[in-house]
Amino acid sequence: MNKQTAPAMVKWFRWSGLSVVLLLLVVQTKPFALGALSQGKSLLVRAKRSLSARSTGWLEQKVTTSDGAAQDNLGWSVAIDGNIVVVGAPNATINGHSSQGAAYIFSNSNGNWAQVAKLTANDGASFDTFGYSVAISGNTAVVGAWHAAINGNALQGAAYVFTYADGQWSEQAKLTANDGVAFDDFGYSVAVSGDTAFICTPYALNSTGAVYVFNRSGTAWNQAQKLGASDGAEGDNLGWSAALDGDTALVGAPFASVGGNYQQGAAYTFTRSGGTWTEAQKLTANDGAPSQYFGFSVALNGTTALVGAPDASGNINYSGAAYVFDGSGGTWNQMQKLTGSDGASGDQFGYKVALHGLVAVIGAPFADIGTNTEQGAGYVFNQDKGNWAETQKLITGDGVSYDNAGFAVATSASSAALGVPNANIGDHAYQGAAYFYQQPQPPTPTPTPTPCAVLAYISNADSNTVSVIDTATNTVVATVAVGNSPFGVAVSPDGARAYVANAFSSDVSVIDTSSNAVVATVALTNSPYGVAITPDGTRAYVTNPVSNGVSVIDTSTNTVVATVAVGNIPYGVAITPDGTRAYITNDQADSVSVIDTSTNTVVATVAVGTFPYGVAISPDGGRAYVVNEFSGDVSVIDISTNTVVATVPVGDAPYGVAITPDGARAYVANFFSSDVSVIDTSTNTVVATVPVGDAPYGTAITPDGTRAYVSNALSNNVSVIDTSTNTVVATVPVENDPRPLGNFIGALQQCSAPTPTPTATPTSTPTPTPSATPTPTPTTTPTATPTPTSTATVTPTSTPTPTITPTATPSATPVPTPRPSPTPRPRPTPRPRPSP
To answer: How far is CA 808 from the centre of its chain?
Structure first.
């Protein structure tokens, strides 16, 4: 008997398989098919190691279920998206049905993970093994039940879709293959991204394997395609693992022979164009050898792919490895081979993998910890300037032999999860558990802003937080936990409140800036993206791309008082200095809707460039600057006539825009060219181009006009530009995926202004803006004039926008899918199964 059939795995006599999770993070598991392992080397003898690399940097929390029982195997699969985690328990007994299975939803609030829902199939039956695989994307979860019988076909398999709305999770659809047959094991691995799901059947076609693509329209899911490998062969098991990120997918075939190498394994990338998926490239390891099972697990995040090969030779023979591929140039190339620094033969490092941003988590469920045989562990790797290095080993604090921690893994960068399906809980053998690890935030002194501190509020979409930057020192002075996937941020004119639009939790967090604590949450019916506040601070306008509307919030009661229908997929919002009009960019309609704020009705629609995102309005209220992502230009609208009077070409994929307080310059963030275009508003020409971080999204100008702050989504930092020289003078690290879009950043809190209401006479803008002499910065002399207003209006014009995934041109999805870089998710391994 080899290592995989040791005592901890005896109970798995029935199955073999693996689960997959997607979105920002994907993980796979590999049940070792007994036959496959017996042909390889013996894994019995392994070196023992000390606990020198224990988890000391990440805070651990162990969770079990409220109704857990023996043999549930909670932790068989795991998927994470922000503050929500789905954990599968495929052998749970439901209403007397043995191994019908369940999946549990856990939510993170203030660093504590707690169970919030239990998912089961409405038509579940014994031995369905619902929860064998799980995936999550926003408010959508997919759960595989690969042993479900369909129309009398044993083990044909099914997958179930659940959605979150009105405070609860409910079943939306049951997915089955149009041409399914017995023993296909449909649902062995699953992946989901937005309105697309991949459901895999690695045992179909005599184990050649196949992948079924489903698309959602409204609430209905329909099978759109069936995919296979162009060179697929029987026994390859395509679909053993899967990851999906926007228009790119990665699918493992771990038992494929490559050249003359039996079961070396491979992985295939598929891309979507015009609504159709096609095979793009076959990935194999540069140092591939027989029986390495490359593709046993996969993870995908933007243009980075991670492929596990649990029987590859790592730092020593057969300890396992994971391979990093880069696809930024259009072709996927192997960049690095990752191994555990203290790996031993048979650890199965790479059994599951997870990836999110610059963080990867790799499971080694058969690793010995001290004298504990096969306790298992997870390894954390961080990327710095293209190089991945091991930074942490996650070891369960109360682990024992044969727990197999790391059987499933997931990460959202600042959080990680290990599935431990064989853990005993009390006297319940194999009840299973999940361990959550939170990366401690660097100690940030409680905000001690000076009386007139100017603070920038930056939303971090993949960390579910807001970073507060003191612009005097360019340091983060506070980090505020908010809702799921925050995008838009706007600060009230008096600087007392920050409003944050949380796309995936469909609400708005209201932050008290004196304590940097969330003091209210405003529930919305759809995913909010952009937000701006009127100059008198009484109303917040929030765009909802899913419902093609704008929600109007009364800031005194924090309730929605009106909803305004606008164009298709509204993202950006900006309000004129006199507060009478709100300008909304309609991304998929190539237009701007103009709302009369006194009646909350649309009074004009202005055609602009292609895919308008950010919008900013000049301090004198005369012009609106709209950035058009696809056409790569800025439309300049004359507000008096609502006509486009100029078009200014800028960089590649402009998203954000902000205008200096004197109106002389507009700063435009160009996502794909990673720079900022500086426009002279008197001539509407670009007078400077400033290189910044990776994938700039939003930009905001300080009240005195001396600095521009630019959020860089893929480098997780903020570039600070000196507007007098147009050079970057500081870089401020923040959390993951800072995404405020253009004036959605609304970010800079203004100093003082005892009278918040911007003013008595709207026309009183100091220095009548025309004098937009190109020497912007010098002055504005301290807006000390009692009319504290003119500059006050600069802040409101901010609004976030969820970039339809950083894949070029979001054109495809009518329902916006936020996050530039999606992260795949992890999941556990299946059990040995009987040959049909």
So the answer is: 16
